[in-house]
Amino acid sequence: MWLQSSYQGGENAPGWQDGDAPGQTIFKTDGGEDASGNYQLPTCPTILIGSAQVNGSPDDGWQQMPNVTGMSFDRFPLDGYGDAVLPYYIERGKNTTSIKRAIVVQPGKSRDAWCYGNLARNSLICAAANDSAPVNMDEVLITAPMWFSRKDKSAGAVGDNDIYFKGNRWYEGALSVGPGDTNISSVTAMDQFINSFFNTDVYPNMEHVVIIGHSLGAQFAQRYAIMRPQQDNDDRVRYWVGNPGSFAWLTSDRPATIEDSCKNSYNAWPYGGEKPDGSGILPSAFRKEFESDWNSVVSKYRSRTIRHAQGLADDGAGDTHCEAQAQGSSHLQRGQNFEAMLKCMDGGNPGNIVFDYIPDTSHQDYPMMANWQSQYRIFIETDTSVGDATVGDDATCSTATAATAPENNNGASGLRLPGGIVAALGSALLGALAVL
């Protein structure tokens, strides 16, 4: 029912109902762009469902949430926070007893959960038509939480009990500023939401939950992998991080120049593991862990199943803050530098953290999600590790630590010594053992 050959293009999407928002028509490969600027890729023989058109804007606030074809807009009750709820989109009509994988899609800077949920669904539809490794759509569930802001509250989209945040602070794990006096971290809300998919009464065959995000959504996914507390189902939670504008760095070393304007904040959260000096706050729910035992935080992160995806043409500056520029000059360079940092830590880059580089792709959400490698990571892959750890050579590690700041040494103890020093120490140790 999804093949382009069955449609003319321009008609309403399958499952369309009265009251669904405009814009959700069928696009074919040669059918132009939808409201979000996306188009169907030539590698996909399936239709693309256009993104819903919405009243309002990310700058002035969204006025209402659109009805998305084939999805419901529901509200998840947050345990321990009174009547507060996390609003979210979720695919409608699927048999929950058949679901084996839930895809939890984060929005972008525009807080456009309806758009990103739809993009993930379009990628799923495309993946289902892949003859070499087809995906069973009945076993995959797409859902997308909505992180509202104060502007959305003023504009009218926020319900009475919906949590909302100051700007886009949700991406760094900040506390909500409403409803009322409700202060819940986006991480705590996400923990509860994710854990609901491991309720065997509802999802008896659930195997994996995959948190995915592109751009600002990827920044949240990467930082959530750091902030999420250790939990029983961690081995079934996976992360896909696409083209983030910046990272929460694991060491105090940086590959690029640390300018004077951020010499005291370049490693402060959300760019690293130190407490900011007045420019922001460490997520309060995790302050004690961050401040007292950063090495354990890093070890926890390195144990998780994380798949990074970087567009090889993503040369845009993205986050222009001084702290982000110390990580590299572009989205792509920051991703490459983050991989190098991991390779140069003790033990190297573990096999459970993988970097994919997507050719001919810039800062484009749907082309990143609908690339065959990303589809495999998001919808199919079950292995935790892809092999042994990879260790950086001397040149890689010299670049990764080019802007080391010894006076801000949190996490730096995890860096691997350059190969020459390791070799010398190894020879000395072997000599000592020979004497014993």
Summarize the structure.
It is built from twelve helices and 14 strands. It is an alpha/beta fold and 436 residues long. Helix 8 crosses helix 11.
Spell out the key features of this protein.
AB_hydrolase_fold, 12 helices, globular, two-stranded antiparallel ribbon, Rossmann fold, alpha/beta, 436 residues
Mind explaining what this structure looks like?
InterPro entries: AB_hydrolase_fold. The structure is a single chain. Helix 8 packs across helix 11. The strands form four sheets. An eight-stranded mixed β-sheet has the order 5-6-8-7-11-12-13-14, with helices on both faces. The longest helix has 17 residues. The C terminus is likely disordered. The protein is globular and about 60 Å long. The chain has a single domain, classed as Alpha/Beta hydrolase fold, catalytic domain (Rossmann fold). The chain is of the alpha/beta class and 436 residues long. It contains twelve helices and 14 strands.
